[in-house]
Amino acid sequence: MKKLVKNNVHWVGKVDWELRKFHGDEYSTHNGSTYNSYLIQEEKNVLIDTVWMPFAKQFVDNLAGEIELDKIDYIVANHGEVDHSGALPELMKHIPDTPIYCTANAVKSLKGQYHQDWNFRVVKTGDKLDIGNGKELIFVEMPLLHWPDSMATYMTNDNILFSNDAFGQHYATESIFNDLVDQDDLMKESMKYYANILNPFNQILRKKLEEVISLGLTIDIIATSHGVVWRDNPMQIVEKYSKWANNYQENQITVIYDTMWNGTRRLAERIAEGIGLADPDVVVKVFNIAKSDENDVITEVFKSKTAVLGSPTINNSILHSMAGFVHLMKELKFKNKKAASFGCYGWSGESTKVLNGLLQDAGFELIDEGFKNLWNADKEQQLKAIEYGKKIAMA
Questions:
Q1: Which of 283, 306, 315, 389 is in Cβ range 3.0-4.6 Å of 275 for a Cys bridge?
Q2: Of these residues, 49, 171, 226, 248, which one is catalytic?
Q3: Residues ≥6 apart with Cβ < 8 Å to 262
Q4: Which three-class secondary structure state does DSSP give residue 25?
Q5: What's the whole-model pTM score?
Q6: Which CATH number fits domain 252-389: 3.10.350.10, 3.40.50.360, 1.50.10.10, 3.40.30.10?
Q7: Is 361 an active-site residue?
Q8: CA distances from 66 to 2, 11, 59, 69, 167 (A)
Q9: Is 210 in the active site?
Q10: Which of 79, 149, 171, 300 is flagged as catalytic?
């Protein structure tokens, strides 16, 4: 069922209420997602992106109910990733010669995934496509936001920016528009999406935002590829991205740990207590990474000025849950954040040293050599852990 976006532009995508993992199992989607595809019906009929492959036949059948498929003049592939291009093979069975407008890198991506030599039309920033009624599509390359092949497409007169993965969120909704959904949920999912997907490309994003602004385009609607269509003050999400792209942090310290026999958990709690005592205004959050969603915790690290990581020593190293999480932090290339380490041990006690090395490698500034405790902390050692928390708060 298509939904009106504006004038002769309709949403023809798919709402995936059941989705709980994305990018394999890398990204949690507690609120599902949408795969947004758009049909423009001017003098020329244009399809902007498709949907994920599991929904390909349903998508093509629904599309055929809205328009005779051979009346589609052009297809725009803003990004070759399968959640946007997955229905192309099914669609192109019906209209094999329809031109597909995309970047040069998208040609490589689409050919590499589907092994089809479709009628590709390569575009670059500033190229235009006349769709009639005095309207044009203007293409804007957005490499590494978040793949090398990504681009956005701007529709003149209606002032719609089809932004693909930029400004989106994994958020299933029948309402499609940003002003019709829960605003807290929307911003929470938007930040999570940014922190887990786009944060590594902050510098590129800042330059691209400047470039888009310099084009002087009036943007009345931002039509993303996941989640809501921004029609109510669409520039609010652009403003958020401008803040988030500048090594964002709030007055928050996040304590993250895993534990074997709860000794390290007790240290985490005492350290968090000390942070709060030293700075009543700071937000302190504590997570056992083995019992928490990694992507949700990454979002908390994104918000934090300091991350405090703890693990007991095992096999002269740290628990693999913590090693994997620090590796994930490294991948996301956080900047301008401090870190500290802690942990219990029974014999050799290398965990803080290992954590420190990983944290430095991940780009965090260490506060000190860390806090470690032999066996379970007694009252005296728990008081020292509280004092360590105070030291972290004041760093």
A1: 389
A2: 226
A3: none
A4: coil
A5: 0.95
A6: 3.40.50.360
A7: no
A8: 8, 11, 11, 9, 27
A9: no
A10: 79
Q: Write down the catalytic residue from 38, 74, 193, 241.
A: 193
79 a catalytic residue = yes
Please tell me which residue in 49, 83, 141, 269 is annotated as part of the active site: 83
* Dihedral Cα 373, 375, 376, 382, nearest 10 deg: -20
In the chain, the percentage of residues whose pLDDT exceeds 90 is 94
Query: Quick one: average pLDDT of 324-345?
Result: 98
> Pairing between strand 371-374 and 338-345?
parallel
Q: Does the annotation count 84 as an active-site position? A: no
- 70, with CB counted inside 10 A (0-12, 13-18, 19+), is exposed
Residue 338 is predicted with a pLDDT of 98
Residue 139 CA to residue 133 CA, distance in Å, equals: 18
Rg of the chain over all Cα atoms, to the nearest angstrom: 24
DSSP state of 235: H
Quote the CA–CA distance of 213 and 211 in Å, as a whole number.
Answer: 5
- Supply the pLDDT for residue 236: 95
pLDDT (average), residues 206-218? 82
Catalytic (active site) residue 81: yes
Which fold would CATH assign to domain 3-244?
A: Metallo-beta-lactamase; Chain A (3.60.15)
In the chain, which residues fall in CATH 3.60.15.10?
Answer: 3-244
Given the residues 16, 49, 73, 81, select the one marked as catalytic.
81
Q: 10, 84, 146, 170: which is the annotated catalytic residue?
A: 146
- Which of 196, 253, 200 has the alpha carbon at shortest distance from 362? 200
Let me know if 146 is a catalytic residue. yes
CA 248 to centroid of chain Cα atoms = 15
* Domain span(s) for CATH 3.40.50.360 in the chain: 252-389
Q: Are 206 and 246 in contact (CB under 8 A)?
A: yes
pLDDT of amino acid 371 = 98
